[in-house]
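Handoff note, outgoing to incoming analyst
You'll be picking up this chain. Sequence as last confirmed:
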Amino acid sequence: MTTEMQIDSYLTALRLHLGPLTIAEREEIVREIGAHIRDSVESGASVESVLARLGPAEELAAQYRDGVLIRQASRSFSPVKLLRAALRLATKSVFGIFVFTCGLFGYSFGAGLLFVALAKIFVPSHTGAWVQDGRLVAAGAFEYGYLPQAHEVLGLWIIPLALTLGSLLLLLTNYLIRKSLRLSQRWQSKL
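Most recent structure output, in case you need it:
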């Protein structure tokens, strides 16, 4: 197999594994890698050593896909896209696991607070925060309704409070995941 055939074979495999990316992104990556391989070969390195240094085309494509996903998510406001990128980051580092776990907690707790606010509107006797003998005995939305010897603390004030806290928690989670993804990109570029 000639040198050019080996390079073309590698670039074809790379292009195939870059499938989820747009055509423009895919072709830019293939051009960049092709130029790198050809420059290295012209400098005197063997094609086999250059391709071995790059690694299998599937792994190189996965690195590029991850980078594109994280870059796009760091500019997005979509919780699904942000959590997907955080999950991808979690497969690579402890920092990623921390970011993904915080994201799951933040989005879940924020959505739960919004649910409590809406539940108080539709089923007020089953939603709230009840105190008995100076301690919290029930909070949130639950099945049994009014507790006989407890009194409700927040009443209808739970609606604006839960809406505000839930919304703020969702926005803060979104902001922190985006910042964390950008930070991880900077760390990757320095390595």
